[in-house]
C-alpha cells in the first residue's frame, strides 16, 4: 500500500502545480482498430476529451492525431512527449518536439517521425503525452496509456497490410514512359498502370481516365503525332483489358508538343516519350424519372 502511495505521489509531484490532465482510468482503457483499403486507425478514447489516434493512409506512414469535442486546449504550440510511466524509475520522458494546436475537432497531426517514436514508446510502456501551456501560464496535459496496446497493435498491423500501395493524391496523375521509342508497354509501365487499376477497382467514385500521348521531336510532325496516338491507345487498351469501359476513357494525342524537357539529349527525349494519365471523379448524371403516360387511351371517355 505504501509503495502504491509513493508511486502516485511521485506522479502528481512531477506535474506542474496548475496542470489539468485528461486521461482515461486504467480499468477503462481500450484501443480500437478501424479502417479499410484506404486508411487504418488505431484509436484510444480519452474520457471527457476526445481521442488520440494513429492514422495511416495508403501509400504513407502513420501520423498521430489528437481529436477533441470539448475545446479545452487553446491554440498555440504544445510539447509532444513519450512519457515514462511512474513505475519505471530512472527513465525520463522523451521530448519529441513541438506540435501546433489548431481549432476544430482535429487539434493536430504529428509528423511521421514523431508517430514512429510514439509507437516505439508504447511498445516500451511509455505514454503519448501532449503538454500545452496557455498564455496565462496554466498547463493542460492529454495522456494515452499503454495498457492493452500490444494486442491492438497486432490488429492495426493486419489492417495496414491490406492498404492499397498509394492513395488518390499519389495515383491521380502519373507519367507512363516509352523510353525505347516504340509504342509497347514495358514492365515498368505495366506495373505503374496496375497500381492505378487496383485503385480504380477499390474506389468506384473515381470513374474517368484522361490519357494524353506525347513524343519527342525526332522525325516529322505527322509521324510524331501518330506515335503519340498509338502510345495513348496502348494505355487505353490496358485499362480496357482490366475492366474499364471505353466510355470512361478520354484519349488525346499531341505529338512533340508540350515536352517535359528540352529535346537536347537522349535522356531528355526519353522523358518526352510518354503518356500522361489523370484519374478523375466525375458526377454521375441522375437517371430521368420515367414518364407517366396513359396505358389505355380507349378508357378515356
Into how many domains do the coordinates divide? 2
Q: The CATH topology of the largest domain is what?
A: Immunoglobulin-like
Question: Roughly what fraction of the amino acids lie in strands?
Answer: 25-35%
Report the C-alpha radius of gyration, rounded: 28 Å
SSE ordering? HEEEEEEEEHEEHHEHEHEHE
| Overall average pLDDT | 90
Low-pLDDT segments, ≥5 res: 1-17, 297-301
User: What would CATH call the architecture of the largest domain?
Assistant: Sandwich
Q: How many H/I helical runs?
A: 7
Which class do the helix and strand fractions yield?
alpha+beta
**Measured distance between first and last alpha carbons:** 97 Å
Describe this structure in words.
This protein has 301 residues and is α+β, with helices and mostly antiparallel strands. The protein has two domains: 15-160, Immunoglobulin-like (Sandwich), CATH 2.60.40; 168-280, 60s Ribosomal Protein L30, Chain: A (2-Layer Sandwich), CATH 3.30.1330.60. It has seven helices and 14 strands. The chain has helices spanning 2-13, 112-123, 149-160, 168-171, 187-202, 221-241, 266-272, and strands at residues 19-22, 32-35, 39-46, 50-57, 63-68, 76-83, 94-101, 106-109, 127-133, 139-143, 173-177, 208-213, 249-253, 274-280. It has a five-stranded mixed β-sheet with strand order 1-10-9-6-7. It has a five-stranded antiparallel β-sheet with strand order 2-3-4-5-8, covered by helices on one side. A hairpin with a 5-residue loop joins β4 (50-57) and β5. The termini are far apart. 29% of the residues are buried. Residues 1-17 and 297-301 have low confidence and may be disordered.
Amino acid at each position: 500500500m505504501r509503495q502504491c502511495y509513493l508511486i502516485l505521489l511521485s506522479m502528481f509531484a512531477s506535474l506542474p502545480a496548475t496542470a489539468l490532465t485528461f486521461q482515461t482510468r486504467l480499468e477503462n482503457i481500450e484501443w480500437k482498430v478501424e479502417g479499410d483499403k484506404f486508411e487504418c486507425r488505431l484509436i484510444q478514447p480519452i474520457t471527457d476529451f476526445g481521442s488520440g489516434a494513429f492514422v495511416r493512409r495508403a501509400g504513407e506512414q502513420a501520423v498521430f492525431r489528437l481529436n477533441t469535442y470539448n475545446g479545452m486546449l487553446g491554440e498555440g504550440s504544445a510539447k509532444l512527449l513519450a512519457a515514462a510511466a511512474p513505475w519505471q524509475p530512472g527513465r525520463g520522458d522523451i521530448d519529441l518536439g513541438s506540435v501546433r494546436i489548431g481549432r476544430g475537432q482535429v487539434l493536430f497531426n504529428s509528423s511521421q517521425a514523431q508517430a514512429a517514436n510514439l509507437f516505439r514508446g508504447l511498445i516500451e510502456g511509455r505514454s503519448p503525452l501532449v503538454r500545452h501551456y496557455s498564455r496565462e501560464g496554466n498547463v493542460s496535459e492529454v495522456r494515452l496509456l499503454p495498457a492493452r496496446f500490444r494486442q491492438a497493435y497486432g490488429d492495426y498491423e493486419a489492417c495496414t497490410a491490406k492498404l492499397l500501395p498509394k492513395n488518390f493524391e499519389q495515383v491521380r496523375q502519373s507519367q507512363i514512359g516509352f523510353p525505347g521509342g516504340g509504342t509497347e508497354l514495358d514492365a515498368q509501365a505495366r506495373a505503374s498502370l496496375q497500381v492505378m487499376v487496383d485503385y480504380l477497382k477499390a474506389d468506384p467514385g473515381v470513374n474517368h481516365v484522361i490519357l494524353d500521348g506525347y513524343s519527342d521531336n525526332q522525325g516529322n510532325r505527322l509521324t510524331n503525332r501518330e506515335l503519340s496516338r498509338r502510345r495513348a491507345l496502348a494505355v487505353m487498351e490496358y485499362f480496357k483489358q482490366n475492366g474499364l469501359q471505353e466510355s470512361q476513357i478520354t484519349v488525346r494525342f499531341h505529338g512533340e508538343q508540350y515536352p517535359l524537357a528540352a529535346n537536347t539529349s537522349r535522356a531528355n527525349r526519353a522523358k518526352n516519350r510518354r503518356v500522361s494519365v489523370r484519374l478523375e471523379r466525375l458526377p454521375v448524371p441522375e437517371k430521368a424519372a420515367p414518364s407517366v403516360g396513359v396505358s389505355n387511351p380507349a378508357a378515356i371517355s
